[in-house]
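## retry 2 of 3
previous attempt timed out at serialization; input unchanged, resubmitting
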Amino acid sequence: MSIRAVVWDVDDTIFDYTTADRVGMRAHLLAEGLLDGYDSVEQAIVRWRAITDAQWARFSAGEVTFQGQRRDRVRVFLGEELTDAEADAWFERYIGHYETAWALFPDVLPVLDALAASHRHAVLSNSSIHVQDRKLRVLGVYDRFEAVLCAAELGVSKPEAGAFHAACAALELAPHQVAYVGDHPEIDGRGALDAGLLSVWIDRDGAHTGVDAPSLASGSPHRIASLAELPALLGADTRFGAPSTFG
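## retry succeeded, writing output
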């Protein structure tokens, strides 16, 4: 059966999270006067990202709440026993800098336009509705999606099959009728494939050079370097870059 809907990851798939996080954290660290303990801004940012990944893994495993992982990221990074209010305030100051750097990848709007008439669209993110709802609205694409589902509210996160199946259920479609597009080879690529969806792994700029697509008995995710490749992959009867149908 043909693919009738596309479910999208957000961060580093349609939204350039890595750049926004780097630019935002650089500005935040300068404003907070926190660079003296590092050889370079990049060293500080690398440490922040490593802490973020570790705390996010705890959230994904159900060991801490979404807000809790944010607070712990701040406490570990600063090496201080902050109160919840202090950690929240620090993180909110960072968010202010981070949001100024928000941007879609340049291939996002053209592909959403190209697939608007042929496919339905939804979002499945390992974040929270509070975060992604605002992000999609600020970026001007919220109305492109029928549903926005996030791990914090679902109670299950990618790569668990239940997360992908929840997105399919929201669209009232079977998994084999749905494609999932995400940037992480395991969380997105393997997870969607195991859940029975058409798995599309976007590896922008060879970010995962040397990493093989997860190899499973049932096949492998379709690896693409640009969303420009997606309409042909889906067999859409459309032309990439067609004029917007949204006015």
